[in-house]
Each structure stands twice: as C-alpha cells, then as structure tokens.
Amino acid sequence: MIRGVHLLDPLSRRGLSEPVDISIAEGRIAAIRPAGTCLDPEPGVDGSGMIALPGLVNAHFHSSGTFNRGLIGVLPLELFMLYELPPFDFGPFRPEIYRSQALLSGCRMLRSGITTVMDDLIVYPEADLEALEAVMGAYEELGLRATVAPYQPNKLEYDWYPHLRDLLPADVLARMNQEAPPSAEEILAMCRKFVERWHGKADGRLRCAVSCSAPQRSTDDYMVALHALAREHELAFNVHVYESKLQRVAANQLYGGSAVGHLRSLGVLDELSVVVHAVWVDEADLADLSEAGATVVHSPSGNLRCGSGMFPFRSARRAGVPVALCTDEATCEEQCSLWRVGQLAATLHTLDHPDHRAWPAPEEILEAMTLTGARALQLDDVGQLAAGNRADIALYALDSDTFVPLTNALNQLVYGEDGRSVRTVLVDGRVVVRDGRVTTLDETALRAEVADLIGEWMEALQPAAGWAQRLAPMFDAVYRRCAAEHVGVNRWVGDEGRWLAGAAWQEEWQASVRRARADGQEDA
Questions:
Q1: Which fold is adopted by the domain 54-444?
Q2: In terms of pTM, does the model score above 0.85?
Q3: Largest alpha-carbon pair distance within the chain?
Q4: What sign for the dihedral angle of Cα 103, 106, 110, 112?
C-alpha cells in the first residue's frame, strides 16, 4: 500500500490530484482509490507530500560504457567510437567488470526514477555467455526491470565504411582479416542459449532481446535469421539506423538507397523493431517506419555529444512513428538521468522551425519516457499507473527544489527535474529505493569494488588508445569526405552549404590518401 500520495492531474490548478491510496498485490497495482478508503490494515509506504509517477523506461542503453564516463569529449561519432571501441587489443574482460558496470549504472538509474532499461550490451571483442550471465545476474540482484540484448555485428569495418579501405595500412587490413567477427551461425547459437537461459526469469522482470548493431555492419542473412529468432520468442529487435550522415552515405553505396527501405525489403522491419537514433531519415523512411509499426528511440544527448545532427522529432510524430527516449551510455549522458534527456528533447527541437505549435509538448515528453519506451521493450503492463499494471512506481518529494514553489507539476517535472526529488522506488511492488538510497545492495561496497576494477580497465585502454591515435587521421578523413556529400536531407542546424562548397575537405582527403599509401608501402 502507498497511502496519501498525489498523482498528476493536468485538469487541476497545480497539476496534482487529491491524495490517493495505491493498493499493490502480487507485484501489480490492484486499485487506486481516494485516500483513506482502502481497508488494507498494513501501514505500507507513506506517500504524503509526494507525487507518484510510473517508473521511467530507458529505451536504449549500453551498460558496457559505464567505465568510460568522462573519457571522451565532443567528437564526431566515427571518431568517438574509434576511441571507445578500438579495433584491436581491447578485451576480453573478466565478467566481474561487466557485472560492476551494470550494477553501478543500474543504481544511478533507480535513484533517478528509472525502473526499466533496454541494455544493448557491447562485449569486447565479441559477445559471450559469461559476460551476459554476469550482467543478467547483476540486474536480478539489483531489482531493476531489464531487457538485455547482445550487441553483435558480423562485418568488418572496411566492408561497409565508405572509402576506408583506401586509407588503411596493409598491416591493419591484414589484422582485421585475421580477427574477423564471429560467423552468423556462431552468434545465433549464442543468442539461442542466452534466450533459453534468461528470457522471462525473475517473474518476467528479466527479458532478452537481440541486436544486429546496424544494417551496414551486418550481413543480410544474419539480420534475417536474427529477426526470425526475435519473432519466434517475441523479442525486441535492436538496430541502430542513420545515427550519422556517414551512415546515410554508406547506405547509398551499399544498397543504392535507403537503409530503412532495405530493412523493410528484408522483412526485418516491423513492430518488434527498435530503431535507435534515426537522425538522417527522410520522409519516405518515416513513412516506412510508421507503416511497419517500428518504434524509434531518440537519443538527444548522444546526438549532441557526437555532433550527429537533430532527429526530426515533429516529422516523425506527424508520420505516426512512436518515439521513445534513452540515455544511451555514460559517455553521452553521464548521470544516467532520463529527466536530463527529457529536458533536452523538450527544448532542443525548438530550433527545428519557428512554429511553436509544433514544438514538443511536455505530455509528449513524459509519454516518450514511459509508455512509448515500454512499447519498444514489448511490455504492455508498465509505463502507466493503472489497475492490473506492474507496480513500478517512483515517489517524488513535493518539497524538493523542483517543486518549490509548486505552480504546474507537469512542467516542473519535464523542464526542471533531474532525479534528485526521488525518495522511494518500487519495482514489481518491491521497495528498491528508500529515502533516496538503493535497498537491494551495499552501494559503498560496490563503489569500492569499482575502484579496484577501474585500474584494470584503464590499463587495458593504453594499447587500444595507441591504435585509435594511429587510425584517427584516416577515420577523420573519411568523416570529412562523407560530411561533404549530398544525401538529400540536412540535419545540422548550421549552414551545411558552405561546408559542401568548400574545397578544404578535398585537399585534406588527397593528403590523407598520400599518407596512407606511404604508410602502406612502409608496412609492406
């Protein structure tokens, strides 16, 4: 029982309902009635002076990036990923590292009101069952509702990355060939074992999903087979699409057209599809996404951190595309706070155009943080406070800075909350945060464990950083060349035309080719 708590009520003067009691039985909301009318004799949780909201849903996240918090500044996506996921000499890591990252980020999420997460887990250098076991065990212990997907492409970078092969030295090409990703059959066998072991565990709180990374990084037969596995078990199918302009250029070269259209032609774009980023989509892509019933996950923090451009929020909504929100990873949203992401989404898109009637409404943002995120995870009983739904509930103190003075509760949440008003969090009716502290584990001990492990992690970064530094000029040259190509849409706020017309990128490209050839001759 949660007694005497307020709910959001947009029709009331300050946006709050009269106090209510929320009855909980067997992990679900049994009833919501006016305060004092429930007959349950148990004292339950005192909700007076607080507002109850459904637990937030973080629709896309990489817990495996948690130890990279603060590691990388502002860089284009392709350079950003090179420093974060260098091609060689990085991993494999002990399962304890993945477990600690999931626990650390999971605690941050719970304390800020996130009760559900889609973890697109990147395991270095390739996904394995030991790491997945460690992460699922961490979420089981923590009490967070988690859907986990092993992020696994199966193509070499130079097979899809525009123009990259022209620049890579001979020794790098040779090593890439020697350390190729696992085959589609190997990945699928691992995924099947993972699903058999974990899907639906902890009374359905833990679920599995699949992730091909991105269409350009995966072979067609692999994506079709992976989607068939998703369809067999009704799993979310994660796919990064058009996160950057370079990826739009890559799709034009690989498919002679749209990556979204290619996914649809393969039969892998449907209501199970969780399309992450979708920054460089055009109107035809949005129509395909809408007709397929796919959900787009918007990452304003990640897009800003990597200068990827602005996702067309209003165009997507007008096309009928459901839009959820995510924190992505700690290198993008370092607090794991979906509220901070919501504030960005609510205000960033005022730059799209001057028609203020098309700017995101606070109701849309809150829906993207709850119900639409639940849809992406194939969950129909979370994201809303209603009888029969899972009792995933967060209580926010109305005497916190966010609400003093209290004028309009919804606006104050969407534009001003950062998670520090959270006092109590329940998942499946179990209290997992009390008085702002996680109850399911010893956070002091966890911080000590992280302090022991981070040295190992930072040491492992040294040789990888050397590779990244060597290859960065080549990746940067490709980025600049692709940035200068016409693709039919523009998602940058600045004057793209001046950049396209400039000759500097062409001179830099020719210099990069000359350096690559000289480097290749020396290596040979």
A1: TIM Barrel (3.20.20)
A2: yes
A3: 83
A4: positive
